[in-house]
């Protein structure tokens, strides 16, 4: 498994990916999930991948070889949208080549990509590209994408991020999102690749690989846990008596009544049989 997150902000883009792949708890591999494409002073793209490693590597190789897909590649397209189309076409090409063999082996065609960057003269853009080769683009209202093991790192992104978030603050948010995922899922692991792309730079000026010895990530891992515990302990416990209105938990809900309690039905009362005695022999009579 893996976890990758990409942010599209007014000042640029943030890409963060882990490097763990595994086929079981005792078969853990390390593979880089981030690939960069740069043509000085003309264009810059970043690609992050999740899914079947053989499939994503095949897609990446087609792009690196600059194979023409419908007459275009990443170095010739006029804008980032057309570049996302090229990536989608590369996925389709791998699917056409491999899907029958994969189906025969009982393996799903699983490939999910975050792709983004900038061509000179346009804004920085971000796309989530699916296994079918189709994609969606980030907007100011939905300014981030996650692929892989996304659920653990989502809450901090939803609470903190918006399109106007400064790049440094967004970088911290992405790293906390990753740390939360690392803490909860063994299938995501260090090292991490982090790219902070400043709009119109058309180059990877802020690119780093982080492992357990990185001082900033060590500090985030330690402080985030401590601050979460402090925040948890600072919240008052629920009041069942209603003595404190601000923490009263037994206040009836406005839209629904109380949860009904179903009692075990009692057995029906049956009249006891009467015994009529004849001479020498009792006779039982039921009412």
Commentary on this structure:
The protein is an alpha+beta fold and 287 residues long. The chain has one domain (3-222): Glutamine Phosphoribosylpyrophosphate, subunit 1, domain 1 (4-Layer Sandwich). Helix content is 29%, strand content 27%. It is built from five helices and 14 strands. The protein has helices at residues 53-64, 80-104, 154-160, 167-184, 215-234; strands spanning 3-9, 12-17, 20-22, 28-30, 34-39, 43-51, 111-119, 125-129, 135-137, 144-148, 192-198, 206-210, 274-278, 281-285. The protein is extended, with a radius of gyration of 30 Å. The mean pLDDT is 93.
Task: List the topology elements.
Layout: E1 3-9, E2 12-17, E3 20-22, E4 28-30, E5 34-39, E6 43-51, H1 53-64, H2 80-104, E7 111-119, E8 125-129, E9 135-137, E10 144-148, H3 154-160, H4 167-184, E11 192-198, E12 206-210, H5 215-234, E13 274-278, E14 281-285
Antiparallel strand pairs: 1-2, 1-10, 2-11, 3-4, 5-6, 6-7, 7-8, 8-9, 11-12, 13-14
Output the radius of gyration.
Answer: 30 Å
| Strand coverage percent | 25-35%
Which CATH architecture?
4-Layer Sandwich
- With strands numbered from the N-terminus, the spatial order across the biggest sheet is 10-1-2-11-12
Low-confidence stretches: none
Mean pLDDT: 93
Give a brief rundown of this model.
With 287 residues, the protein is of the alpha+beta class.
Please supply descriptive tags for the structure shown above.
five-stranded antiparallel sheet; alpha+beta; 5 helices; 27% strand; 287 residues; Glutamine Phosphoribosylpyrophosphate, subunit 1, domain 1
């Amino acid at each position: 498994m893996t976890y990758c997150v990409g942010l599209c902000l007014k000042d640029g883009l943030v890409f963060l990916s882990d490097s763990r792949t595994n086929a079981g708890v005792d078969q853990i591999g390390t593979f880089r999930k981030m690939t960069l494409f740069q043509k000085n002073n003309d264009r810059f793209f970043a690609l992050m991948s999740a899914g079947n490693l053989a499939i994503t590597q095949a897609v990446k190789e087609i792009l690196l070889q600059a194979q023409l897909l419908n007459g275009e590649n990443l170095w010739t397209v006029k804008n980032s949208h057309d570049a996302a189309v090229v990536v989608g076409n590369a996925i389709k090409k791998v699917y056409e080549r491999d899907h029958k063999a994969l189906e025969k082996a009982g393996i799903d065609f699983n490939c999910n990509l975050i792709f983004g960057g900038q061509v000179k003269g346009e804004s920085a853009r971000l796309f989530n590209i699916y296994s079918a080769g189709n994609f969606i683009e980030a907007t100011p209202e939905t300014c981030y994408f996650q692929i892989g093991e996304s659920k653990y790192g989502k809450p901090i992104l939803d609470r903190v991020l918006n399109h106007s978030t400064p790049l440094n603050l967004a970088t911290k948010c992405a790293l906390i999102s990753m740390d939360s995922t690392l803490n909860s899922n063994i299938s995501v692991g260090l090292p991490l690749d982090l790219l902070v792309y400043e709009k119109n730079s058309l180059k990877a000026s802020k690119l780093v690989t982080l492992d357990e010895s990185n001082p900033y990530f060590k500090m985030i891992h330690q402080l985030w846990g401590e601050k979460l515990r402090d925040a948890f302990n600072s919240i008052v416990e629920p009041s069942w008596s209603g003595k404190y209105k601000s923490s009263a938990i037994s206040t009836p809900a406005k839209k629904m009544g109380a949860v009904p309690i179903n009692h075990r039905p009692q057995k029906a009362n049956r009249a006891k049989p009467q015994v009529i005695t004849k001479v020498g022999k009792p006779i039982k009579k039921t009412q």
